[in-house]
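task queued by scheduler; priority normal; single chain, no ligands, no partner chains; default sampling; output format set to structure tokens
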Amino acid sequence: MLQREERPAEITSPPKSSLAASGAGPLPSLETLVERIPPPLRAALDEHVRARFVRVRRLKPGELR
């Protein structure tokens, strides 16, 4: 079985000149970005990603182990 050599990923940031050159202006608001997501996809994300609390109960000692 072959073993791959594991190397830490190198994180590089773009040069500051390219950041200034992109100059897209101010970032859009969160509401604007959310509106661009189609409603069925938004509903699916809400269904599968968000945590929902359905009940509260007291745990007995040792239940979390």
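post-processing summary
- The first helix runs from residue 16 to 22.
- Residues 28-52 form one domain.
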